[in-house]
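Sorry to interrupt, but I need a hand with the structure work. Please put the record directly below this note.
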Amino acid sequence: MADNRNKITKYRRPVNLNIGMVIFAVIFIYVVICVVMYFKTDHIVGYSVMEGSLTSNNIYKGIALRDEEVVTSQDAGYINYFAREGERAAVGNLIYTVDETGRLSDYIKASESGENSLSESDLAELKTEITSFTNRFDCREFGDVYNFKHNVEGTVLKLANYNILENADALNDASGTSLINYRYAGNSGIVVLSTDGYEKLTLQDMKAEYFDEENYEKKYFINNDLVASGDPVYKLSKSEDWSIVIKAEKELLDMLEEEEYDYVEVRFLKNQYTAWGNVDIFTNEEGDSFVSLTFTNSMITFCSDRFIDIELLLKEEKGLKIPNTSIVQKEFFIVPKEYVTKGGKRGEYGVLLETYDDDGNAATQFVETPIYHETETEYYLDDTVLRAGNYIIKPESTEKYAISHTGSLTGVYNINKGYADFKEISILYDNEEYSVVKSNTMYGLNVYDHIVLDASMVGDNEFIYE
């Protein structure tokens, strides 16, 4: 007989279902499904309506036009300026000297290697120049650094030149002849130590190509430069009356003509100052339109600038600010007011709809239809309740009206009650991203209402799950 004492049979443990594990597995699967559905579902985002205003992007680069006189040199030699750029010169003020031999230039160069001191007033002038530049510097306009460098160099050299002016007299006395010529202002005005070829430009001469700064060239006048007789050496801006010309698109022209603007408030982006400019419009032969804004002050601040960035502070509309993505067009049935009445358990607005029973007998049924807009004689009613071709009965009468006439309204979907409820809006002003609409209208929005951010994602009366 075989010995079975060493034969081992593996014991299979019975499956023991733990109710806790089952519940956990069900919950886990449910969570996974919810997460997957969440990421696959387009989410409706709400937007809280707030009061606000819109200003369109009315920032322009303009060309400054002034009454400018370019002054040429009467002599040949090395020029040294004694009038600082942006300084007002009266008739007879010393503007520059011309050294015919270069001896004064040699003296200036020799002086630069030694010690020079500036008075407290000279230092204050330099500090003012540097502080002004620091306060208005914008790293996006790095070209202004070169203008600042030119201005500081002009200030320093002017101050230094005054210190050696007495040596010019000594050089003249030693030679017995006038080797150094003094030149004075023949007219009063603001001194500018540069030219650019735009000095004689007028509004009637304007072309679009003049606004291309890549082709713009500005020539600076520097101390100790060698000049020939007849060369330009400086210019005078002789009047406080000046203008800025901008190239205008059709939208701006229409706005100016529609509102009949004679004057427009302008903000200068360089220093944030504002001024009122007289409006003049000109269209050249090529069909390009330009707007001239004429001022009677502030010219000295921008005397050395040809291109000036400005912002037009046009009419600003205030109301409820909403994103344009919330705006939708919706069709409605239009019915005469006398066919609309109140009824039902809640006393809401509705119509008496003509219906028929199984035997073909006519009857009327009150159907609640919210009103979305009204005129003097008509109401706009929801087209989801009524159908084209339905007859409605005039209250306390047998007159019928066949529903057929429709019209569209501009509005948004209000979600205060948890579903998409259309609300009419009246747009006051808009730009590419936002619109400003009237507030507290009968069938419209109020401040703090919640609307659908993207109206294309919902339909009428759809329940909203944000």
Notes: The chain has a mean pLDDT of 82.
